[in-house]
Description:
It is built from 13 helices and 14 strands.
Amino acid sequence: MNRVVITGYGVTSPIGNTAEEFWESLEKGTVGIDTISRFDATESGISVAGEIKDFPFDKYFVKKDAKRMDMFSIYGIYAALEAVAMSGLDLENEDMNRFGVIVGSGIGGLPTIQEQITRMNNKGMKRVAPLFIPMAIANMAAGNIALRLGAKGICTSVVTACASATNSIGEAFRSIKHGYSDVIVAGGAEASICEIGIAGFASLTALSATEDPKRASIPFDKDRNGFVMGEGAGILVLESLEHAQKRGAKILGEVVGYGANCDAYHMTSPEPNGSGAAKAMQLALDEAGISPSEVGYINAHGTSTQANEKGESKAIETVFGDDSNVLVSSTKSLTGHLLGAAGGIEAIATLEALQHQFVPVNAGTTELGEDIHVNVVLEHGVEHTFDYAISNSLGFGGHNAVICLKKWSE
């Protein structure tokens, strides 16, 4: 079996479009949520979202790219190219038949779908854009990344709602661990902040109607009342330890465990007792070969909904008991919920926490709910000594995905 290491990452998010910006925001507890600026969402009753600011489009794209790809693909390509640049990979010297791409999306090109259906209704079926389908389908972030990189190994897209990116990273880990691939770029991309995206989740009563951006995404708080939509992409470069050492790569961390299962309980609500999420966490720890007491940080799914945190808190209690060494925070308090990309940027946040021995704050939360019995990091981030951390992603459909990361050591 191969050890699997992380040698690069790229991110575009509501709290930063570079590794440096992203870490600085995590360290300071900077909230990237604000009033929706792209359209008037008043009728939906929702007023805030985690929009990307000042996206550096010109760094890797030309004008026509915006007409050929939905923004979720553009976000994904950007993060992938940033990740490869950080990794120092020389693609001309790689066996690209063993270089893969596993990048998920929860919804795919939702703004394109909205735009083209509106166009069809207004102007007729003949006026639908020729590239509508390849712009909209959820696999095209992965496909477009492979095209840019020339990656000819496994290329697939995991669609498990809010667990998509974590499942993608886990599947990439397994592919390299078992020797099928040398290098895989893995993570998720999403761009669903549009009228139909906000309206759809609002109709489901899943979104927070709170107008104060600092109190809208408040995971584990007694007043939590719905998630805040975010957008962006988080992509990791995973490779076998042997491959990374052979080329003299700087190793950032190690993936040591992956757990995935299903609640098989409800379309949108998690199992109230958290049994599915608990089992997924335990599976990740089992593969890592560690005990719960060795884990210092849990990057929780923490969506700021009553049902999620009640179940996730119980799941953490089930696995970790009352071990006070395990600190918990949800970085969705800073970014909002990036749906299929959430696990990508949260894996990066977890990696950064390990590298800097620092646990980010669960921002905005002031008083824990009575049903919360875990050690949530409040007020400000804290320095913390730990070697292992896990990142949880729990998606509509009952999907549970957990990865376990280890601070790098030989």
